[in-house]
């Protein structure tokens, strides 16, 4: 009898491996991959589209492999033990979502990108389907207390590793800076070319862990904090309570140093909801302690930030300090721009450069080779020069732009030497709020007009950059600080999904979120936390809420989304 019990326990441990791989191994997977993004075909991108990737490429394929094994296990399990299969109706919205992901891939504007993933994302069709598989797997396989205990061990393990890595980064000693670490992430030949590129991604003491972007680190840390915070509040054994509290506190400390405002907001929501959901806190009438604790923690971190140069506080409130350049177009008879509400025309004629105020008809000019001071700004200027062909160099809004005339029409010449037309693009009117959210408002204003064309089927996974109006050089000068930057995401998961996989797919995701929220509230609100299933379930529930909230300002990524989908499956399993 004892032997059979041991076999059963070992079997259950095996079933948890796919989930543990997503929680513990995937976040740490960093290795160099060199690929071609295929954007060289566009005027707005350089001729050389060979790019290095450390953080997404191999994570993407790792998700594919683990999800495939999970699907095989599910098929055997549901085929052999039909009586143990849980009801699947909660996942109907996700099954419809998968259908539209597949349809969007079939009709994708770039099937190669949609099938294999592309450009700083690598969320291919297989990755998106893999997320659903992982959530369904967690839902079906989580059955016993030991299953939840094993997952908690995984959460604590990755939290401990991230805690160590994050502390090194806080104190300006990022492990990725060391040559011996970088040599583990690439071949000797690759190190000669790409060595040193990792630590140059971010400067200062931003915590990004092994996830590339501090925003992604903030989301993951917030989800881990939610689980550990609930465990700390509900634990009765003193030593364990101290352990959970210390690790949760470390996660909160590192969240601060991601300098991510979305993660900070999600953190506050998690703390407040934990106090509202837990019966012991409500029963002992200690809910009033939460605002006090938040205030004390806020005061503590503010003191730390001020001592460190107010790096965080300086980003807390967005101010509209953008240049008042609202449009710039290239046409046959010149370069037309609107600056601070005034329209101007700049053109070259008979070896002279002209600038005309189209409202007052005032006109300035300079001979070829002479600098022409422009009326838009004190330091605005232009010069008409003769290189291989005549060029107009325009310095405006702290940016130098090069223009040429070809076949009787003016064109913008980008950093890679390609010529491109500047034209007005469709944009939603945000009433001057485009600068909000580190100029996320600008990206949203250019994304919203794309939605009506993708109500049913999207442009395909990982094709956002190709659909976004990259020729909006004036907008990128003002809000992205460079006309040549590539906008690869909407910085809002729901907008990105709508564009890439269609409006119906977003509706399906939102329906699933509502199901998740309602089931979680019904099961965990003021319930007795007398089992690991209930405690971990509530922690994962709050983690999912933090992810949904943070993704109003961030996108789904291979760094953050696998943890969410695993937690979503755990919540439904615990609440079912």
TrEMBL record:
GO terms for molecular function: ligase activity. InterPro entries: WaaL-like. Coiled coil: none annotated. Keywords: Ligase, Membrane, Transmembrane, Transmembrane helix. The keyword Transmembrane helix applies. The chain crosses the membrane at residues 12-34, 60-78, 90-109, 121-139, 151-171, 216-234, 241-258, 264-281, 288-308, 498-516, 536-553. This is O-antigen ligase family protein. It comes from Roseburia zhanii.
